[in-house]
Amino acid sequence: MFAGTAAAVLALAAAVAAPAPIPTDSLFAVAWRKSLVEPYLLEYKPFEPAGPGIDPLTGMVVVATRDGYVAAFDKGGKEVWWAKLEGPYLAAPAVADGLAFVAGIDGRVFAFDAARGEFRWMYEYKEEFGSQPVVSGDLVYVATLEGTVLALDAKTGTWRWHFRREPTAKFIILGVGRPTVVDGVLYQGFADGSVVALDAKTGAVKWDRKVGRGAYPDIKADVLVSKDRVFVVSYGGQVAALDRQNGTPIWESKAPDAYKAVIDGDVLVVITTKDILGFDARSGKELWSLAHEGAPLADPVIARGLVLVPIGKGLLVLDKRTGKKLRFFTRGSGATGSPAVLGNRLYLLSNAGELIAVDLR
User: Fold this and answer.
1) Starting from the edge strand earliest in sequence, which strands make up the sheet with 354-360, in order?
2) pTM for the predicted model, two decimal places
3) Residues 230, 143: Cα–Cα separation, whole Å
4) Which residues make Cβ contacts (< 8 Å) with residue 39, sequence separation at least 6?
5) Domain residues for 322?
6) Mean of all residue pLDDT scores within the chain
C-alpha cells in the first residue's frame, strides 16, 4: 500500500541551482546562515522536507537533515550539539520541557537532552513516522504514514497507548498531519477521510466523523482547533468546520486536492496542489485565492500577518487578509520543509541543507 516511500519522497524534490544572494528589504533581514550538508557524489536533486524546530523557552533551533544528522544551534548560529542518526525525516524535530524529539521514516523516535544533546531514549515501531512529535503534559505524540497515532511517555519513551485507523484505499497520498492536543483531547485526521477526537491520556474515542470523500479522501493536514470548532481539509476537496465537542458539521466548502492548512484568527488558509486559498473561518466563505506552481508538502505558517508557504521551489510570502503575493524567497535549491517562527525570528532549511535565520520586520 505504501511501497517505496523513500523513492516517493525523492520524486518530490526540487532541482538544484546555484544559491542566489539573499536580499534584505522592508520585510526581512538575514541574521545568519549555515551550510549543514555536504553534497553527495552525483547528487542532482537534494531534498529537505523536515524543516527546523524551535525551543520556545531558549530560542534554540534543532534540525534533522537528509544525511541523518540532527544538530542544535543557539540564536546566534553557534552549534550547540549534534547526533548522527539514520532518518530520513519528513517532519521537523520538536523541543519541549528540556528534551528534543526526532521521529523518522526508519520507524524510530529519539529523545535527547535539549541543552547538551545527551541521548535519553529511543522507541522503535514497525511503521514510518511522518509527523512532527507533539508534547503535551507528560506525553509525546507522533503519527505514522500508515495510520497510527502513538502516545509515549516523554521522559522514558514508554508506550502508553496507540490508535490505528486502517486505510480503505489501495493507494494513499503521502504525508500525515501532526496530532493536535487541546484541553486533554487529541484530534487526528486519517487517510480514509475520518477525523477522530481521542482522550489524550487514554486514547479512548470521544467522537469519530467522516469528512473526506471521493477517490482520495485523505486528510493530510493538521486538524485545526479554535474555541468551539475544529477545521478539517481533505484531498478529496472538502474543507469543513465541525463542532469541537461532538464533531457535528457546521459548514463545508470546496478546495480540490487540499493538502495542508493553517488558521489565524478568523482566516483559514488552505494549500492545494495548485492554489492557496483564504476562507472566512466563521462562515466558510472563500475570501481570496492565488495560484502557485510548486509542490507543497509541509505545513504553512502565519506570522506577523504574513502567510509563509513552502512550495518546494521556495517560500511564498502572502498577505493574510488579501492573499496578495509579497515575496518569493529561495536560495536556488528551493525550500520544502515548514519554516519555524518564534517572535520575529524565522528559520528556514533549504533543499540544499542550508539553515537560514531571518528577522521579520
Assistant:
1) 28-35, 354-360, 345-349, 340-342
2) 0.91
3) 19
4) 46, 352
5) 5-360
6) 91
| H or E element, residue 310 | strand 306-310
What is the distance of C-alpha 64 from the center of its chain?
Answer: 13
Look up residue 269 and give its three cell numbers: 488558509
Cis link prior to 300 (omega < 30° from 0)? no
298 and 260 in contact (C-beta within 8 Å)?
yes
pLDDT at 331: 75
Instruction: Give the mean model confidence (pLDDT) for residues 128-153.
Output: 97
pLDDT attached to residue 209: 98
**Count of domains forming the chain:** 1
Q: How many CB atoms lie within 10 A of CB 126?
A: 8
Interval 56-77: pLDDT, tens? 999 999 999 999 999 999 999 9
Whether 301 has a pLDDT exceeding 90, the answer reads yes
User: In this structure, what CATH number is given to the domain that contains residue 194?
Assistant: 2.130.10.10
**Cα 78 to chain centroid, rounded:** 25
